From TrEMBL:
The keyword Nucleotide-binding does not apply. This is 1-acyl-sn-glycerol-3-phosphate acyltransferase. The chain crosses the membrane at residues 12-38, 58-80, 92-110. SUPFAM superfamilies: Glycerol-3-phosphate (1)-acyltransferase. It comes from the Bacteria. Keywords: Acyltransferase, Membrane, Transferase, Transmembrane, Transmembrane helix. GO terms for molecular function: acyltransferase activity. InterPro entries: Plipid/glycerol_acylTrfase (IPR002123). It comes from Georgenia subflava. The keyword Transferase applies.
Length: 345
């Protein structure tokens, strides 16, 4: 759906979320009784009550975040100092608190377990910024990654995100106050007509000035993995005359061919940054809304694995960097494939 303008999101959608949270909370006993009565008809252990509880919690969580953000806005002089270092840090701390609460509930209600392997946040790159290039597959994987970076590894992430995530009021307000970039992905091979600044330039500008505890987060695939998107990406490479890249992309079964422009722009803007390549499994089969409903309650174990690259190990030339990126993406694909279930293969 087309994203509405900011004033609509602030004056219509955000108040509607707060009103929905209030309405659901005041009528929750009735809904719980109905959900419990119907639960025997729905497969999955207490599926309806658990989903109802998570929906209620998410609306209340979102509303509480909006209230806290409003308080910070007032305290900053009605937004006058909201971009100052002190208030930027306050927003990162607030983000960490709310993500911690969200995943506490997910662990309890949905029995969601997150395990970390390897060097997810660049522990071997302590004291310098990192560019985190992550696989993109399944609902909420970006939130899981930001939760890990913020709460477990004390990094301050800068994120390149799809603009449609601004439908969520708390995400919209919080992340627009921090150094992040919401973008409308262009068709494969170029920018949208009429755009004043290219996507590559926007990403490069966001990576300028990274400091020692910053993590620049980008999803080189440009969207959540699906078989149809993977096929279109391969077809796009062939139309561009990149037959060798198309062949390599076709050999990768669990990821889409990466778009190199964004990550190369980030590396150019932050030459002292190391790189972390991130893979994860556990949400692979949750592509459509029907898939998500089928998989609930989740009872999922999500495994995140990271590999770090020191700045000196990053090739210098553009074509060499593209080849290097594809090589790492093939490694990510191999790691996922080694853990794929028969249904995923």
């Amino acid at each position: 759906m087309r994203l509405p303008p900011r004033w609509v999101r602030r004056t219509v959608i955000a108040p509607a979320v707060v009103l929905s949270a209030f309405t659901l909370i005041t009528t929750l006993p009735v809904w719980l009784i109905v959900a419990t009565a119907l639960t025997a008809l729905i497969p999955g252990y207490l599926r309806l009550p658990r989903v109802l509880w998570m929906v209620t919690f998410y609306l209340v969580w979102n509303s509480a975040a909006l209230v806290c953000l409003f308080v910070l806005w007032v305290a900053s002089g009605l937004g006058w100092k909201v971009r100052s270092p002190a208030f930027q840090r306050a927003h990162y701390v607030l983000t960490g608190w709310f993500l911690h609460l969200l995943f506490l509930q997910a662990r309890w209600v949905l029995r969601l377990q997150i395990d970390v392997e390897g060097d997810v946040a660049g522990a071997s790159l302590t004291g310098r910024p990192v560019v985190v290039a992550s696989r993109h597959a399944g609902p909420g994987d970006s939130l899981i990654l930001i939760h890990a970076l913020t709460n477990w590894f004390d990094r301050e992430p800068r994120i390149v995100l799809k603009d449609t995530l601004q439908w969520d009021p708390a995400v919209d307000v919080m992340l627009n106050r921090l150094p992040n970039r919401f973008i409308a992905p262009a068709p494969f091979g170029g920018d949208r007509p009429g755009r004043a600044t290219s996507l590559t330039e926007q990403v490069g500008n966001l990576a300028v000035g990274l400091d020692a505890n910053d993590a620049f987060v980008i999803f080189p695939e440009g969207g959540n993995f699906s078989p149809e998107r993977r096929r279109r990406r391969i077809d796009g490479l062939r139309r561009e005359g990149r037959a060798a890249m198309a062949a390599r992309a076709e050999a990768m079964r669990h990821v889409m061919a990466p778009r190199p422009g964004g990550i190369l722009a980030a590396l150019d803007a932050a030459p002292d940054a190391g790189v972390v390549f991130l893979a994860h499994t556990g949400l692979d089969r949750m592509i459509t809304v029907r898939d998500i409903w089928r998989e609930l309650p989740m009872d999922k174990r999500i495994v995140m694995h990271g590999w770090h690259v020191q700045p000196a190990e990053i090739p210098a030339g553009r074509e060499d960097r593209i080849d290097w990126l594809y090589g790492w993406w093939e490694r990510v694909d191999g790691w996922i494939g080694a853990r794929a279930t028969p249904q995923d293969a």
